[in-house]
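Re: the 188-residue chain
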Amino acid sequence: MELILIRHGLPERRYDTADPPLAVAGVEQAQRVAAWLADERVDAVFASTMRRAIQTAEPFATQAGHAVIQHDGIAEFDRGSGRYIPMEELKRDNYEAWLAMAQGEHGVDIGVFQATVVAALEEIVESHAGKRVAVFCHGGVINVWTAHVLGMTPRLFFEPDYTSIHRFMCARSGQRNVVSLNERAHLR
């Protein structure tokens, strides 16, 4: 089966919630990724339970004729933080805080987070054998799943762009392969 992970669009910067809606630019990104994927036959559309992922999934799910199936196991590690600062802003405005977060010093057990994400995505894979599934999620989710597929120590090791596309082939035998990472031609 083909597992397509799509990062959410740019959300609003918020200090009162870790679950903000998409910013105006994020809404446009969601429309662009939906248009880019329009010709792909997809059998199911999943999203994390966080607003930014759901709002990114909705334009694509609507045009593909699917409901968005929410799954809590693919929510981001920061969901309990009480605030949301886009990574590029954090990196620009507070490099030390961004570096600590990137090195795993964000108060979350990255191994436990990866185990949760892997269990959720494997559940989706198993229940959709031979199909193509789009999963709208988060940068941390994409990082730990990719690290799992590559056999790496769980960590945040690359920066998926907003609405970037990441493709994986998942065989019934348990073999997992990276097809592509960080596709973003639709953002040009």
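The chain has six helices and six strands.
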